[in-house]
Please model this.
Amino acid sequence: MDRDWERRLAQAWASFDGYDEAHAGDFRDVIDKLVGELPDGSPIAPFEQACAFDSTGHSDRAVPLYQEALEKGLDGYRRRRTVIQLSSSLRNIGRPEDGVALLTPELDAPHDELDDAIRATLALCLAGLGREREGLALVLGALAPHLPRYQRSMGNYARELVER
Model:
């Protein structure tokens, strides 16, 4: 999409906190209007609509839209965001195992600024399956490089949690 459209989309999302729960539908209407400008078949349209449903408390309505975006070939940064957000939504609707299945391959994907979000969301999905130690290991492993000290210790502790 062009820069103007992306700018207007960013402005819409920047205004999100200005909508209270009673006006969540108004926010989704803003997003719907913007995605209406996209070419037919664009994978960005269902992705942005899914984000709007998810952000307004409707994970159940977001899931099929995220899946549609992936099926239509969403790629790049938005694809990875979709995997994170879809997995979180699946967890929210009682399907954490599907979230684990989506997120696990992302651990071996090329690294970017979404790596920690991948690990945090995977940790939540694992906790939803009663696998809290694995989840804690992921979170500690993600946190360790950001600490001013104790990076090596925390990394080792994270590994020990799953090696036992």
The mean pLDDT is 95. The CA atoms of residues 67 and 86 lie 8 Å apart.
